[in-house]
Hints:
481 residues; mainly alpha; 18 helices; 83% helix
Amino acid sequence: MKMTPAERKHMMLHDPVERIIPRLAVPTIISMLITTIYNAADTFFVSQLDTAASGAVGVVFSVMAIIQAISFTFGMGTGTNLSQALGRGDPDTASRYASVGFFTAIMTGVVIMILGNLTLDWTVPLLGATEDIFPYAKAYATYIFYAAPFMMGSFVLNNMLRFQGLATYGMLGITTGGILNMLLDPIFIFEAGTDIGLGFALPIGLGMKTAGAAVATAISQAVSFFILLAQSNLRHDTISILPRHFRPTRQMYGRIFNNGLPSMGRQGIASFSAILLNNSVKFYVDPLMQTAAIAAMSIVSKIVMFVNSTVIGFGQGFQPVCSFNYGAGQYSRVCRAFWFCVKVTTVILLVLGFGAFLAATPILTAFRRDDPTVIEIGSFALRCHLLTIPLWGFIVMSNMFTQSIGYGVRSMIISSSRQGIFLIPMLLLLPPLLGLTGVQIAQPIADVLTLGLAYLIVRSILRQFAAREDAPLAAHEGGAT
Length: 481
């Protein structure tokens, strides 16, 4: 049932958070799962070629993470300000933020596309590609850069719809592109008649190998982009993207970056850490095992991302509720929503983490059954990651909570900690001492340290909220005496 903006605002500010957050979260969880599945599909199908091809997807993933980091900066920054403006009852300002964020992201994507393809020969080795991996990685990265404008536009549009409480519209675009990508992957990667590892031979195929996976991704991202743009501009209950509303100011960009930079911190530092991890393998792991180690860690990252996507999706259902109520000054409702999300996501992670821990070896075997070294390295690394997975609920919600209320610096600190402030030192210290084991255990140690830091930051904010709730009462009592 469609809701008017007034009805949607009433829902955000007054309906039980235990009901509306899951309602908003289901479409975003589905979108996140589909996105993660089609990222994993690239890795799965490419891994059927050989170990070096599998490693190439992991190497180029850091490029995609950089593109996503910049996209989320605009998407989250724009969405937060848009949502807060709607919470204040100011749709005109919301429309300006939407157009400024969208068109700036598209222009940035075009610049990335051009510069990325001009510098491939020296950037791919810097990403951690070994000699075996380099040709596969270069072919894959070429088309990923071509897709950059569509990728960035899609991320921004999806976030803007989500922050309006219209995550279902965003889900349609993301899900359609994701399913299309999974269908196109084998067709573009393999030649006709190839056994693609699922028990049947492919009837048609273009045989483009790793480049084919990237082409499939580019086409799928373009399809998602146009669906999301249509959802934004052709529906009466959404904020439209119009060139005439593109009237940026320094203040608007300042607010977008203040709220969006935590995502840059999280995603950007994650990409740097991925590059550092690949290079740690190149420098501190036996040369005979380097390609297998990079491939194994690439597969593990996709599996872990799949588990974590449920938490991120749930948190994205929390964010518009958080922003609306913070903008309306309902601090106790924000706190209630935060703790509800922490409890639910921790339970989800315990269940998924336990199942994946038991099935670690079969999962790795499904990706690269012909390489026992990849299976051995990846199974141990996956189990190490899963030991700390229950901590992610509090960590992710803390990041989204601080970001949604406009605490940009503190949100950036939290978002940068898990895969930056703590992970980077671990990757610099542990691999020289422990070799491959140091690479495998660096992230779990960083997770534990991040939990402690996030707790300290969130505790101080919740105390501030409690003081604000008590202030009117204290003032009233003081005036009565």
